[in-house]
Design a protein that fits this description.
Strand content of chain A: 25-35%
Helix content of chain A: 25-40%
Radius of gyration of chain A: 13 Å
Strand order of the largest sheet of chain A: 2-3-1-4
Oligomer: homodimer
Distance between the termini of chain A: 12 Å
Structural class of chain A: alpha+beta
CATH architecture of chain A: 2-Layer Sandwich
Shape of chain A: globular
Chain lengths: 96, 96
């Protein structure tokens, strides 16, 4: 299992709509991807327009190849992308 | 409950020693703090000298006041601080 951490900045004042979009995009799109294991959305306290979306995947390639290069990714981005004020910073982690 | 996310960069080649220091520092120091609920250490895949340390606290002030301004913080920093190649970037989050 690996963890994707997506550091996201959204346009101000869009919190409720963004959070609803993430739930919709996860449940209707991302959760269908091979190797998708679960997610948590964290909302910034100091940086109120910052979110960290954590997604657990069975393997790195389930995210970087299967999801990112497959037909689900544009569907996901169509739902959540309009809220981004800048490109998210995404990296992957192992539990140490 | 809130989540502290500490984005940490360490000196190259110190992974095993840093991970052992975090376990020591958590178990002997941080876990004694009021409101400490648990932690997970994530190790970067793309950025191999990057770690994200997640600590759950009962409240924001348990970390920012009780721990950061109390006697445990210098003990914690003495154990893990020497591994940092730059000051960690720390912010707090609510589960959205």
């Amino acid at each position: 299992m690996i963890l994707e951490l997506a550091d996201i900045r959204i346009h101000a004042g869009q919190h409720a709509a963004f959070e609803a979009a993430v739930e919709l995009g996860i449940s209707t799109v991302a959760a269908k991807a091979n190797g998708f294991l679960g997610h948590t959305l964290h909302k910034g306290i100091e940086s109120t327009d910052r979110y960290v979306l954590q997604i657990s995947w069975s393997s790195l390639e389930d995210h970087t190849v299967g999801f990112r290069e497959g037909p689900l990714f544009p569907q996901w981005r169509a739902i959540v992308g309009p809220f981004f004020s800048q490109p998210p910073v995404v990296e992957h982690f192992n539990v140490a």
